[in-house]
Amino acid sequence: MYGGFLSGHYGHFILESLARAWVTDSEYCNDKVLFHSHRPHLSRMQRHCFSLAGFDERRVQIVDRPLRIKNLIIPEPGFVISSLFHPQHADFLGKIPSGSEVGARIWLSRSKLPDVAGRIVDESDLEDEIIKDGWIVIHPETLSLVDQVKIFANASVVAGLEGSAFHTVIFVKNPTCRLLIIPRTRRENDVHNNYKLISNTKNIDQRIFPGNLRIIEDNGYRSNLAFVSRADVRDFLNAESA
Hints:
Blueprint: E1 2-5, H1 10-17, E2 33-36, H2 44-52, E3 60-63, E4 79-80, E5 84-85, H3 87-93, E6 96-97, E7 105-108, H4 123-131, E8 136-138, H5 145-154, E9 157-161, E10 172-173, E11 178-182, H6 193-201, E12 206-208, E13 213-217, E14 224-227, H7 230-240
Parallel strand pairs: 1-2, 2-3, 6-10, 7-8, 7-9, 9-11, 11-12
Antiparallel strand pairs: 4-5, 13-14
């Protein structure tokens, strides 16, 4: 079977590199899965994602030279950027059940990410303010993948700036948390359609707070930004999580 390209970017890996993994749960695939990659071996992140999806990494064969294959299965992808998230693929990925008790309100922080990722220069100021309202600030990059998934499984509300950390919710079976997302791209008043595909397919209550960022340093998707009004963001978070 052909699996596709092994992206080194977390968000693209779980959306695109895992897009054909659903077939490995069927009778049609019981052998090696071929992937293209820039690296000769799986990274730690890739291994953890495969493990969480129930995919045995020993089945991965990275193609680094031209091959001629007599019979090759090329499945339809279960996720296509901006256009498709098939329910069967969603069911395959959703492994961790939601908690049964009312959980915490979580802010997914980007404030400690490298500058190359694009910064919200006053995000840490907002975090200091919402902590006083009872929010818990989490830095996803400091947690294991399983612990990140458990946040979405057990929280009542998960909020933050648009970013790949929100895609982790696909590993939760029937998520019950509400998602509050602040767009940080040139779309200004909306998030990328991938977020809508995920929320619609998994029946997630997702709400968007548009138009509250201004450009400090323009560098496309990695621009440094600042809130137009932290007070408005704080009011939105508390009103939509009540």
